[in-house]
Inverse folding.
């Protein structure tokens, strides 16, 4: 019984770490993955969310990169200079 509980906790922690890296709510995914460990596969397959003020999509390859990036880490192309930041 204690091994099963340990596996559930580890699954919850793994799910919350993956969710946090993809811009999703880690506490909710911790609970979901602890209850149903197979949800780790679901969160791993979900695309990352663009976090406003932190990340953006590359203009060339459409991958998620940090907002302050000058060069895309995926396609190695220089990002265009944005003269004015949009305020939302």
């Amino acid at each position: 019984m204690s091994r099963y509980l340990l596996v559930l906790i580890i699954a919850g922690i793994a799910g919350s770490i993956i969710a946090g890296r993809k811009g999703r709510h880690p506490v909710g995914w911790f609970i979901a993955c602890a209850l149903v460990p197979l949800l780790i596969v679901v969160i791993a397959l979900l695309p990352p969310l663009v976090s406003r003020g932190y990340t953006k999509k590359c203009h060339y390859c459409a991958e998620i990169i940090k907002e302050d990036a000058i060069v895309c880490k995926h396609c190695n192309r220089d990002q265009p200079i944005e003269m004015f930041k949009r305020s939302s």
Notes: Helices lie at 2-21, 26-35, 39-45.
